[in-house]
Amino acid sequence: MSAEYDYDLFTIGAGSGGVRASRVAAAHGARVAVAEEYRVGGTCVIRGCVPKKMLVYGAHFAEDLEDAKSFGWTIEGKRFDWKTLRDHVQNDVTRLEGLYGQTLGNHKVTIYNERATITGDHEITLASGKTVTAKYILVATGARPHVPEFPGSEHVITSNEAFHLDELPRRILIAGGGYIANEFAGIFNEFGSKVTIANRSDTILRSYDASLRDRLLQISMVKGISFLFHAEFERIDRQADGSLLVSLTGQEPCEYDAVMVATGRVPNVEGLGLETIGVELGRKGEIVVDAFSKTNVDYVYAVGDVTDRVQLTPVAIREGQAFADSVFGPGEPYAVDHSCVPSAVFSHPPIAAVGLTEGEARNQLGNIKVYQSDFRPMKNVVAGRNERSLYKMIVDAANDRIVGIHMIGPDSPEIMQAAAIAVKAGLTKADFDATVAIHPTMAEELVLFK
Description:
- A hairpin with a 5-residue loop joins β12 (244-248) and β13 (254-256).
- The chain has helices at 16-27, 42-47, 49-67, 82-106, 159-162, 179-190, 210-222, 274-277, 313-328, 358-365, 378-383, 412-424, 429-433; strands at 7-12, 32-35, 110-112, 116-120, 123-126, 131-139, 143-145, 171-175, 194-199, 226-229, 233-238, 244-248, 254-256, 258-261, 265-267, 300-302, 343-345, 351-355, 368-375, 389-396, 402-408.
- Strands 1, 2, 3, 4, 5, 6 and 16 form a seven-stranded mixed sheet that branches. It has a five-stranded antiparallel sheet with strand order 17-18-21-20-19, with helices on both faces. Strands 10-9-8-14 form a four-stranded parallel sheet, covered by helices on one side.
- The protein has three domains: 7-144 and 266-328, FAD/NAD(P)-binding domain, CATH 3.50.50; 153-263, FAD/NAD(P)-binding domain, CATH 3.50.50.60; 349-447, FAD/NAD-linked reductase, C-terminal dimerisation domain (Enolase-like, domain 1), CATH 3.30.390.
- The model has no long low-confidence stretch (mean pLDDT 97).
- The protein is an alpha/beta fold.
């Protein structure tokens, strides 16, 4: 590698994408350094999908313990202690943070636990004043929750703070209609909070199939979650007793103990010095990159949420891997395919999807076939729970190829991971039909569509 610079690669941000890129580049023989001003691991590990999934697991026990009665179990004296779960989750986050740092260290990656700013051509200055040079710079600083500005907005929390609450709010308002809003609504609801979702439109989870959105809305309302549509913040006032008086458009002012905003995420680009070397930003402040994650500046790359392509951890990891292999590896450069990416919403019950929705398929393909299974899982039948699952398969009528699968029901994300391989591989409905079912399972519905 080049002796002209202090490092072959300097990565700003040690989240999922930055860590993967740095580790792989080092494995290819590059001299690599990473700067992280907060905690190694990034959004997913420290304040995102990992601790959130742990809270989801904890929330599931609320219904499981109740359902256990129908399966012959007697559980006396059950109670939930928020602080116990909160602290166990944070302890595991700290454990994972250590493992991420250990992985970088094992690959001889230099870690700077401080902020880094681009101050010149191939030049990075650390908060301590140290200046280093690098042949390539990778920006992997992720994104942060968007907090709208209105009178009293200083009283709201985001998903970042939700993991550290001293106590559970008795009444919580969650603003937003996306996956974060619906996931935390399910979590707080199962923990006993009275949850209200306020959405500025009349649609939740707008990127998902309409049938799944409607089913989740119906189930959530049965579980006691309230929804306010076409409702935007006017103001929030803190009252003498500490409660928050919230005024929303079209609604009477109402009291809550906490207000959480989950209204999207914005790329972390401020203060990085990108303007110093002329890195191009997009309309939303995202770093503009090509298919190979390269910016308009030849030696500067960016991966993950800061590029606002697909804001999912596995996508950032793929982008980081592709960057490191392409720039430092012995093989030919390659780009990440951002099409047909599976996703999940860890709501109660969860949603999972891959490929085109029914609406998208009709618009793009015209002639399609839609197969649907609306059923009550066996466990719910025994438990006396009326909650129904919905599986949906979208097929291109011209060639029998499956172009979309959509599911809402217990363990849908676990089932979807294998099904997504089939959709990505271009398998047909006939391929699914020829596969013998595993009985009795919920997943067998995927090979029994008629």
